[in-house]
Amino acid sequence: MSVLILIDHADGHIKKASFEALTYGADIAQQNGMAAEALLLGTVTDDLATLGKYGVTKVHQAGNTAFNQLDVQVYLKAITEAVNATGATIIVLAHNQTGKALAPGISAALKAGLVAGAIALPDTSNGFVVKKAVFSGKAFANVNINTAIKVISLSPNSYKVTVGQGIATVQELNLTPLPASIKITAVDKVSGDVPLTEADIVVSAGRGLKGPENWGMVEELAKTLHAATACSRPVADSHWRPHHEHVGQTGVQIAPNLYIAIGISGAIQHLAGVNRSKTIVVINKDAEAPFFKAADYGIVGDAFEIVPKLTEEIKKMHN
Ligand code: FAD
User: Which parts of the sequence bind FAD (predicted)?
Assistant: First the structure.
């Protein structure tokens, strides 16, 4: 019996959310006296043996490069085969875009109970109860999974990564992606240095910026912080920024370590997509803006004065 943690990757590198999932899965394994193993579909340049430091003893790699691009049907077939081959009974993956696309399918294929967006280790004192946030983080639910196989996707930034000394064994797993199943071809990539859903820091701006011509200072601050850029919905609706940057209830949902909101009022629909951020900094000229209630730090003032000064100060700190 083992816990199998699915490793998500892009451009040859393991995504940050997977390190959290690895620690989380390894801790579940330890809690339940099980082995902790990882599964990687495709190839990465990162050294897989070093994943042992997150607590897994073995990494199963299906190293066919056809797996390097996510195709849900192809992945589901491969993951089901891997679960059968390894005898895993708990499958853990990150609740990021990949995880959200895969977890329900894995659950259906394996007739397994699923908790999507877990935020804590299961409580096994009476069943197998996993805590998750519901209603955009406004409440919690404790879900008991009582199926033989269990699937848990872990909410990003909800579990502390711990790093030890272990070295994992890397074992090739012979899984063949069926070419007939591959229905997706990547034709383009969203531009930007830091992908929004994976970013540690996000600099976001709203209608308070008055127009697309004023985004230079937002991009400059983001570049200085190695951050991704985001925006409120009206900004994307007005075509000031591309729609893939729109965060909120109807946009991308994110949970970075730091979210800087500039000239955004903090409507409930916006907060629904960002309120799981670890630290929120709000810059708004209206001291009564609702966003200040959700902020860890607030700056009341004109963004056109504050943002360039903030960028300069951060640049000085880096020099
Ligand atoms: P505004 O509400 O116009 O706020 C602009 C802010 O900028 C104000 O607080 C103002 O004080 C401040 N400001 C102005 N000038 C300056 C300056 N010089 N310096 C500093 N601050 C300044 N919105 C989302 O963002 N994401 C969603 O996913 C989303 N989904 C929605 C779904 C539904 C069904 C509905 C009905 C709405 C949704 N909305 C969503 C829209 C949401 O209700 C708000 O209208 C929107 O978030 C407001 O965007 P904003 O804060 O950029 O603009």
Answer: 207, 232-233, 263-270, 284
